[in-house]
């Protein structure tokens, strides 16, 4: 895996790709429009270029970039806030000020005309992005497609929710050895849901621990790895010494 | 229609529950203010940036010579421009508020409230002596304007902007002038040391936010009176508050202005307590402002002295 | 002539930056793609660019509107607006110090374009290409001055702002050019050449600023 810094307009070198391979364009990579004679790739934003399966017949090119605003992609796990309802749909907000997405009232396990969840405006849900189409609103679903059961999706009750940057949320969700989480496990018992739309929901036994956990996770974005343990310690001791 | 923050019920309940237990999300106590950082831009006079936690506001003061208003020939003109742009948050829209086309959204109201508060606190409390801005009665006067630039929103714009405007006014220097009859000579800042404005007192706003942990209904019946009072609310605290009160005080402990809005009923004695507490904060902030100004004038003097010495040295050699 | 730039310091918007050169300083912010806030602005096939320029002192006038329309014509060529149909992208520019008299807009536009470019990269909005702007003035004696000061600008015979796209760290094609004053065709070509050269040299430092920002974004990962 290479991590090279690239900007829009830079040509991505695809000469190493084996002939006849089908290249997949991941996030933030597009076909270059400045050079029409030959196929060339170019990043659409500043970030770190990653190539997966470079040697194989199906390499993937993508550019890692840490933004704040989420663009729905199929099969992403997200945390949304119900902001309204119309017909048989709920309107769900994934980021403040972004265009809302849809959640069908029947996209819950065992939902029927008579038995469907009654969600209120302001409720938090954990869901999966089911479909994204260019000219339509994206749609969410609370059903795990492999089992047909809830699979952890659905209404999130209690707890606290806060925003982090997108790449950080992805790291927390996909990196099994995210150090911050293993540090927190040592401090307290908690329940967590991570949405790749940059929202994290956390629930612990008492308010102070929840505040400490959320501050630790949020502030961790500006900490280096080696100072992490000490800073987590600080975050908790500040709140404990409070009164 | 404007865009709004989406705040979940979970968050609302959590924040209120935390406040009940005397815990705020950033680790402050209920009546603690965030750290105030005042920085004066070195390139010119009267350009100040204030940050209150993550809230950031800049103020730029400028002056020009114009004709005074017909009905007030002995007074100069002082204007404050408080247009909030979506730069500080997409929550605010451009072209609304006091100067806009009378939109009725909540955001517009919020912007009007902020500009009226600053207007009342600084302009109407006569913080700036506008009679001293008169040059030739009825024909020439100084027009001083303070432009506020709202950069980042994390609650409590009013307190931050008030500090910014006052520091900028105290720091500003207008070019020296000489009047001979109707003739006015304006000296370049290199020719003559520019002169400060005449500031009569330094009003500072302190905003409190109120919450009722037992819901609105209990408050109207008013038996328990255990409303929560917060100073210097952050974004989410401000969005959830049921009532706010802004007190403008100067260091002589005089109240220049007091505005209580939002409808939550509050005991009169609690308001007295708020005032006493605010006066403590104000004297601390007042010291901080003067400290920053002193630091800055020291820096500036050095530059001038160096320049003079340089000239002197050049002459010597 | 040097310049200063900083990126990613505002919290509530998606991208932000400052750009400062020769007494001209601006702050810009980018947020998007957002939900359309006014129905009349909605475009069925592309994003609506909501551009606002706020002067350092006073209220917006026709001067700011002129700058806004110039900026729009540049940005609609470089932002991949077709990616975001029925959305809006909010771009706000706060002038901090103009660094030139009211009669000119060239230095301000240069700083605005460069600052918005850095903010756009910070926000992650899709761009078709990298781009930078620079300005030149021609003195009465015929010398070309890149990124002039206010005084040099006032004594100049003509001035030009040009925006070039950047491919593989080199100035590529001309996106926008705007000149005022008297000049010959040969002079204009010379000016464009030195602009392209200047942009190439600026690009190195801008790249570094953006790279540092990206490194800062991933500090927990390193």
TrEMBL record, chain A:
Protein's UniProt keywords contain Cytoplasm: yes
Localization: Nucleus
GO cellular component: cytoplasmic exosome (RNase complex); nuclear exosome (RNase complex)
Primary location group: nucleus
Pfam families registered for this protein in UniProt: KH_6, Rrp40_N, RRP40_S1
Name of the protein in its database record: DEKNAAC101709
Keyword ATP-binding: no
Keywords: Cytoplasm, Exosome, RNA-binding
MF (Gene Ontology): RNA binding
Ranges of residues in domain Exosome complex exonuclease Rrp40 N-terminal: 23-69
UniProt cross-references to InterPro entries, sorted A to Z: Exosome_RNA_bind1/RRP40/RRP4, KH_dom_type_1, KH_dom_type_1_sf, NA-bd_OB-fold, RRP40_KH-I, Rrp40_N_euk
K Homology domain ranges (all copies): 159-206
PANTHER family cross-referenced by the UniProt entry: EXOSOME COMPLEX COMPONENT RRP40, PNAS-3 RELATED
A biological-process GO annotation: CUT catabolic process
From TrEMBL, chain B:
Gene Ontology molecular functions: mRNA 3'-UTR AU-rich region binding
Compartments (UniProt record): Cytoplasm; Nucleus, Nucleolus
Keyword rRNA processing appears in the UniProt entry: yes
Domain of life: Eukaryota
SUPFAM superfamilies according to UniProt: Ribonuclease PH domain 2-like, Ribosomal protein S5 domain 2-like
GO terms, biological process: exonucleolytic trimming to generate mature 3'-end of 5.8S rRNA from tricistronic rRNA transcript (SSU-rRNA, 5.8S rRNA, LSU-rRNA); nuclear mRNA surveillance; nuclear polyadenylation-dependent rRNA catabolic process; rRNA catabolic process; TRAMP-dependent tRNA surveillance pathway; U1 snRNA 3'-end processing; U4 snRNA 3'-end processing; U5 snRNA 3'-end processing
Main location: cytoplasm
Protein name: Exosome complex component RRP45
From TrEMBL, chain C:
Keywords from the UniProt entry: Exosome, Nucleus, rRNA processing
Keyword rRNA processing recorded: yes
Subcellular location: Nucleus
Major localization class: nucleus
A molecular function GO annotation: RNA binding
Any one GO cellular component localisation term in the record: nuclear exosome (RNase complex)
Gene3D superfamilies: GHMP Kinase, N-terminal domain
Biological process according to GO: exonucleolytic trimming to generate mature 3'-end of 5.8S rRNA from tricistronic rRNA transcript (SSU-rRNA, 5.8S rRNA, LSU-rRNA); nuclear mRNA surveillance; poly(A)-dependent snoRNA 3'-end processing; rRNA catabolic process; TRAMP-dependent tRNA surveillance pathway; U4 snRNA 3'-end processing
InterPro entries per UniProt: ExoRNase_PH_dom1, ExoRNase_PH_dom2_sf, PNPase/RNase_PH_dom_sf, Ribosomal_Su5_D2-typ_SF, RNase_PH
Exoribonuclease phosphorolytic domain ranges (all copies): 3-125
Family in the record: Belongs to the RNase PH family.
Full protein name: DEKNAAC102523
């Amino acid at each position: 895996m290479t991590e090279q810094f690239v900007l829009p307009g830079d040509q991505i070198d695809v000469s190493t790709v084996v002939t006849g391979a089908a290249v997949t364009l991941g996030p933030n990579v597009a076909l270059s429009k400045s050079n029409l004679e030959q196929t060339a790739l170019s990043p659409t934003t500043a970030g770190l270029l990653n190539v997966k399966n470079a040697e194989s017949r199906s390499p993937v090119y993508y550019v890692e970039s840490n933004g704040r605003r989420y663009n729905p992609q199929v099969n992403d796990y997200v945390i949304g806030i119900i902001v309204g309802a119309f017909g048989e749909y709920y309107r769900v907000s994934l980021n403040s000020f972004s265009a809302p997405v849809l959640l069908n009232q029947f996209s819950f396990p065992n939902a029927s005309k008579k038995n469907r969840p009654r969600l209120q405006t302001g409720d938090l849900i954990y869901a999966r992005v089911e479909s994204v189409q260019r000219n339509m609103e994206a749609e969410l679903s609370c059903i795990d497609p492999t089992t047909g059961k809830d699979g952890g999706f659905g209404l999130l009750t209690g707890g606290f929710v806060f925003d982090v940057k997108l790449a950080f949320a992805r790291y927390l969700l996909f990196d099994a050895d995210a150090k911050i989480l293993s540090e927190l496990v040592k401090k307290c018992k908690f329940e967590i849901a991570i949405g790749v739309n940059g929202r994290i929901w956390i629930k612990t036994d008492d308010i102070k621990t929840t505040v400490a956990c959320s501050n630790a996770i949020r502030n961790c974005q500006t900490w280096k790895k080696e100072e992490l343990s000490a800073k987590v310690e600080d975050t908790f001791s500040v709140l404990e010494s409070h009164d | 229609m404007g865009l709004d923050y989406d705040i979940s019920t979970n968050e609302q309940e959590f924040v209120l529950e935390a406040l009940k237990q005397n815990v705020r999300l950033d680790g402050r106590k209920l009546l603690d203010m965030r750290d105030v950082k005042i920085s004066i831009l070195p390139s010119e006079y009267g350009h100040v940036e204030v940050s209150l936690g993550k809230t950031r506001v800049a103020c730029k003061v400028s002056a020009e010579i114009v004709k005074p208003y017909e009905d007030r020939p002995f007074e100069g003109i002082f204007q404050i421009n408080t247009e909030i742009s979506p730069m500080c948050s997409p929550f605010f829209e451009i072209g609304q508020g006091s100067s806009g086309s009378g939109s009725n959204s909540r955001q517009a109201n919020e912007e009007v409230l902020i500009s009226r508060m600053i207007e009342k606190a600084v302009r109407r409390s006569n913080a700036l002596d506008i009679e001293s801005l008169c040059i030739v009665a009825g024909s020439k006067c100084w027009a001083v304007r303070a432009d506020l630039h709202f950069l980042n929103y994390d609650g409590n714009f009013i307190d931050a902007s008030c500090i910014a405007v006052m520091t900028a006014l105290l720091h500003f220097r207008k070019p020296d002038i000489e009047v001979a009859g109707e003739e006015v000579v304006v000296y370049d800042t290199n020719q003559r040391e520019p002169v400060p404005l005449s500031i009569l007192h330094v009003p500072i706003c302190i905003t409190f936010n109120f919450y009722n942990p037992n819901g609105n209904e209990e408050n109207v019946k008013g038996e328990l009176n255990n409303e929560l009072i917060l100073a210097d609310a952050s974004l989410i605290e401000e969005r959830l508050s049921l009532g706010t009160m802004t007190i403008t005080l100067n260091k002589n402990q005089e109240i220049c202005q007091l505005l209580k809005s939002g409808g939550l009923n509050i005991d009169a004695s609690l308001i007295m307590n708020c005032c006493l507490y605010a006066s403590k904060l104000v004297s601390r902030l007042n010291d901080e402002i003067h400290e920053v100004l002193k630091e800055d004038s020291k820096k500036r003097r050095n530059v001038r002295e160096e320049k003079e010495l340089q000239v002197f040295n050049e002459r010597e050699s | 002539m040097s310049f200063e730039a900083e990126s990613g310091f505002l919290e509530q918007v998606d991208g932000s930056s400052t750009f400062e050169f020769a007494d001209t300083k601006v702050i810009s912010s980018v947020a998007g793609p957002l939900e359309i806030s006014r129905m009349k602005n909605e475009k069925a096939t592309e994003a609506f660019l909501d551009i606002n320029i706020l002067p350092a002192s006073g209220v917006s006038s026709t001067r700011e509107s002129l700058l806004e329309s110039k900026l729009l014509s540049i940005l609609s060529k470089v932002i991949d607006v077709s990616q975001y149909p029925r959305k809006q992208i909010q771009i706000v520019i706060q002038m901090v110090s103009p660094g030139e008299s009211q009669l000119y807009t060239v230095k301000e536009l240069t700083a605005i374009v460069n600052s918005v470019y850095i903010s756009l990269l910070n926000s992650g909005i899709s761009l078709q290409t990298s781009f930078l702007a620079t300005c030149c003035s021609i003195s009465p004696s015929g010398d070309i001055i890149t990124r002039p000061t206010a005084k040099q600008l006032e004594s100049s015979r003509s001035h030009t702002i040009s925006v070039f796209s950047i491919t593989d760290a080199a100035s590529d094609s001309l996106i926008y050019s705007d000149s005022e004053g008297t000049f010959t065709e040969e002079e204009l070509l010379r000016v464009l050449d030195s602009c392209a050269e200047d942009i190439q040299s600026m690009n190195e430092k801008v790249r570094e600023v953006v790279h540092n920002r990206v490194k800062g974004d991933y500090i927990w990962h390193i």
